[in-house]
Amino acid sequence: MSDSTAEILLHIRDLLAGDDSTAMRKVLAGLHPADIAELLGELENEQKVRLLKHLDNETAAEVLAAVDERSGQALLQLLSDTEVVSLLGEMQSDDVVDIISQLPPEKSRQIDALLPSGEREKFHELLEFDEDTAGGIMEVETVAVQEVATVREAIELVRQLADQIENLQNVYVVNGEGELVGTIPVLDLLLHDSSEKIVDLMDDNVISVPVDMDQEQVAALFGKYDEFTLPVVDSSGKLVGRITVDDIIDVLEEEASEDIAMIAGTVEDEIGETSPLKVSRARLPWLIIALLGQLLNALIMSHYSLSIQEFVALVFFIPLVIGTAGSTGIQSAVVVVRELAVGQRSDAHIGRRVFRELQVTLLNGMILGLILFVAVSVWRHEITLGLFMWIVLMSVTIVAGFMGAAIPLVLSRLKVDPVIAAGPFITVLSDIIGLLIYMSYVTYYVSNIRS
User: Fold this and answer.
1) Across the chain, which distance is largest between two alpha carbons, in Å?
2) Partner of 59 for a Cys bridge, out of 55, 177, 251, 348, CB 3.0 to 4.6 A?
3) Quick check: pTM over 0.85?
């Protein structure tokens, strides 16, 4: 939070304490809804409701759509059912569905009963889609004209619906069956004679999104085609809604938060969570996995204890070897997971990726091994030991790099989220494999070279 925002927050708290409605409205009138949403997150629940009631319905709806999930849930619980319904009436359908889905079942049923029948049916249809698909993030509000319509008819429809639709840039063109057949920018309508037919002006090379496409793939399409909005179609090609770039920004933020949390072995929901017990419960399973992995490492070391006793100096290098293995595995895994997330899933691309990671890890292993060779030779005055450590580190790095690249790909093929491979799973596995390789080399070195 910036210094200026912090000052505004202090001022708002003073105004709420003094119950100065006139001054409060004046302060809020100069703020963007997103800034008000940020301020709401810093207030107590009762203060949030009081602040929201100082806003007109349209602004309050924009603020409610922009607040974080926890603040939104708190507000919805404290507002009356009629107040919630009034705010929902000012929102786009995708925001309404997000809010309704967050409500407790009883509150959701009460709100649902108060909605107009037409709105209720529309929202029920949207709630049937998985929240992580195109259908789950789309809004049904669109401007669609028949291909036989004229420019005049299209402009009139835009005028009628402009207040209901945000970020209106394109008019979609459908045939008699409601199938999407083209698109035309709103601005282009103003450049043509009003009697011209839409079918003669439209772009029939339409990029559309299947309603069941995963939201990450939808985000990749936006990036690939550099679009501001994309239409959504069902399995028969009928236009059912649209997705705007602001929805995609939310998706990217959500997916990034989720991926970072999973890489760290936590969950996204713990951000903002105040209960130590809930946070502990989220993190503990991964820490237990890590602990079991380290116990397995201890068993491996005990199995090779005689080799270690023969040359204790080799113990010094164990943290170095398994640490390098873990870091190499994570680097490869994160790169592969990122490419999977943006839709790079073809067999040819996957093969090239694994091969490139092997090349990179081989090069890195040779360079790291060379550095270790020089360090060990100078430190221990043993060139043979230095060469041994060079070979060991290069072997461990190559194997860890291959695992880091291959495991996310395998998990993706098995329909398991590959992000989990970039966290404790890869780290623990790299530690175990790295230690096994190292101790096997140590046994050979002690038995055949040092002796």
Assistant:
1) 96
2) 55
3) no
